Amino acid sequence: MKSHEPTSSQEVQLSTTHIFNLPPELLLLLLQHLHNIEDFMNLSSTCRQFRSVGLSTSGSTILRLAAASSRTFFRPDPHFLITATVRQVSDWALLNLQNRETLREAMREGVYSLLALCIEKAQLTMDDIRRLHASRFSLIIPVSDMIDRCAGAGPTWNHIPEFWHGNESIPTTVYIEPTRSLFQLVIYGELFASSMRAFIEPISKLPWFDHDFRMDYIIYCIPDALCHNYGLHGFQKTMMPIGPYADQPKGNGLMLENCRDQVALHYLLRCDTWKDAWERVLGAIGPHFEEEWRQSMWRSAVQLQGLEGLEMLRPGGLEKWRPRLEAMRSSIERLQDADKPKAFETPKRDAPIISECPGMTREIALAMYEADICWGLDHTIPLIQALTQSSEFS
User: Fold this and answer.
1) pLDDT tens digits for range 329-338
2) Fewer Cβ atoms within 10 A, N terminus or C terminus of the chain?
3) Contact 59, 162 (CB under 8 A)
4) How many Cα atoms occupy the beta-carbon half-sphere of 295 within 13 Å?
5) How far, in Å, are 13, 274, 282, 375 from residue 292 at the CA level?
6) Distance between CA 271 and CA 349 in Å, rounded?
């Protein structure tokens, strides 16, 4: 009977066989079978060869691995990774009508569906991840704290002299998750900055997302129980029982009965402290336009600069943006009356008027309009206790 023990030549061959004898393309395939970004980082740190392979890994693979760690390293989930990639998806969607409808369908299914589309269509590099995490300390945390002081109770409001008489913005508070609200604002900017550019530079004839498309983002990716309950009858837009509004106890991981995200943004965007911060940016670039439509476009354009645009609110951050903002303002100043964006009025009396060009403040106000009317609230009064559970107040 023959022995199956290896010969000496086979032993030599086995002893010299090593994973790095595999061709690079096979090593890259190996990285695609990792579970998450932590595995990727650990493997890349083992030796020089795997570090080199990691540097060659595609952006789509890195994004998929990052998404698998979203709830650990990229919070708030899924907004953080959507912010990082959704501008790529926006540019892709504007290429043709079919892509646009794919993005619309994803938004209508909620934020997790939007993230799934980002994973499918966008890419992310390790340099992007490092930059994003650096921005958490330089931008995200400071501006989130600012939002908390604008709309939430904040840690020291009761120590501010004459707080209840207006010395600190509006002397009321509303339940808000500051970081999530910040990312909802930033994602709107990342999605629709290119649409604003189409109106600032009409000669370029760039494609853009219309107001109905933008309302789909607000309704379904910024879910709110009041928007669900009262709908948008004044805008003749039907609320569909899909995504976060599906007839289930939970919609895309959010308990709808506890969801007041549109209320929070409606309050924040009309808060004096928030508005004044942006008005200081505008004033540092140039005087107000006499025509309201130009000033409104200018104000919206500045606030639509995405995550990096938050630098304008930080000490010393405006100078980096000054050349770009001056060019933007000059373009708006050169617009002719014929370039004025079309305004849309709803059949309802006193309902907010929205424009063809992006403007989140009025679009959020429109989403909240029916709730305002049903609660008998004036539009100059923040949506406060009547719109939130009393236990949510500090």
Assistant:
1) 999 999 999 9
2) N
3) no
4) 11
5) 79, 20, 14, 30
6) 24
